[in-house]
Amino acid sequence: MTLTTENPAALAYAATASQAYRSALSVIESVEPRIADATRQELADQRSSLKLIASENYASPAVLLTMGTWLSDKYAEGTIGHRFYAACQNIDTVEAIAAEHARELFGAEYAYVQPHSGIDANLVAFWAILAHRVELPELAELGVKGINDLTEEQWETLRHKFGHQRALGMSLDAGGHLTHGFRPNISGKMFHQRSYGTDPATQLLDYDLLRATAKEFKPLVLIAGYSAYPRRVNFARMREIADEVGATLLVDMAHFAGLVAGKVFTGEEDPVPYADLVTTTTHKSLRGPRGGLVLATQEYADSVDRGCPMVLGGPMGHVMAAKAVALAEARTPEFQTYAQAVADNAKALADGFLRRGARLVTGGTDNHLVLLDVSAFGLTGRQAESALLDAGIVTNRNAVPSDPNGAWYTSGVRLGTPALTTRGFGADEFDRVAELAVSVLKQTTPVTASNGQPGKAKYALADGVADDTRAACAELLADFPLYPGLQL
Ligand code: DSN
Question: What is the topology classification, in CATH, of domain 333-477?
Answer without folding.
Answer: Aspartate Aminotransferase, domain 1 (3.90.1150)
